[in-house]
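Q: My labmate handed me this sequence with no annotations at all. I'd like to see what the chain might look like in three dimensions before we decide whether it's worth expressing. Could you predict it?
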Amino acid sequence: MATNRNPTVRQRRLARTLKELRTGANQTMAQSARHLACAESKISRIEAAQSGIRLVDLRLLLDLYGVTDPEARGRLEVLSREGRLRGWWDRYSDTLSPHYADYIALESDASDMYSIQTFLVPGILQTEDYTRAVVRVQIEDATPGQIETLTKVRQERRSVLARDLPLRVWAVISESALRHQVGGPAVMREQLLSLAASAERPNINVQILPAASEVHAALFGPVTILGFPETAETDVVYVDSLLSTLYLEEPDEVFKYTHLFRRALAESLPRNESIALIERIASEKA
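A: Here is what I predict for the chain of 286 residues:
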């Protein structure tokens, strides 16, 4: 089988999940290879996302690893069949950075999002005018066309909130982010009212971290943790800054950020109090 020199995010997820399932079942690569009657190097290439895997081989490995749940097997088979397919975001490949495109691909398949936002409203909950103001400031040399494209992409990302099994969002937002004048008072008021309305939806939980909380000292910037339906699949931490994008997948590293999120959540106002605070600050901008 030819080497896959440019694996998609889905292919990398499938490869990582198969490795985790194998180690969780206490199987070696040699044992998996014997089960498929193939060379050990084939298992190595599959787990490194250097080659795909046939459905017949995938099913045999899932049998070996003790994966009996039909839904879990079905999700992995979909990853195998559709691994090379690109999503709607591929239409904007001339504008999106590869890292941002990878993030959107992960977000589109995720079942849960845990987000800490220290300066801005989470991207997936932003209004169009707020996004335009953010992009205009963050990318000073952006053309009007680029600004509109990035704004459109961010709005299209919201589709995961309205699918049959919507993305579940837990967002912790610093109180100061609600008081920033991104785009001016009218834009901020619209954004805050939209945020409060979104927070009423059953799959979206927004909680505000008060300005007085000491946990701010442990926050070094925005963090997003994405979880997936397959229980064997490791969560992914996405840390974004002006000059770099960092993905963390190692369990120890993911745990540290998950623990940080829990600390921030514990220090945040309850849901109803958070919505009331958002609406109160919005009214101040009228």
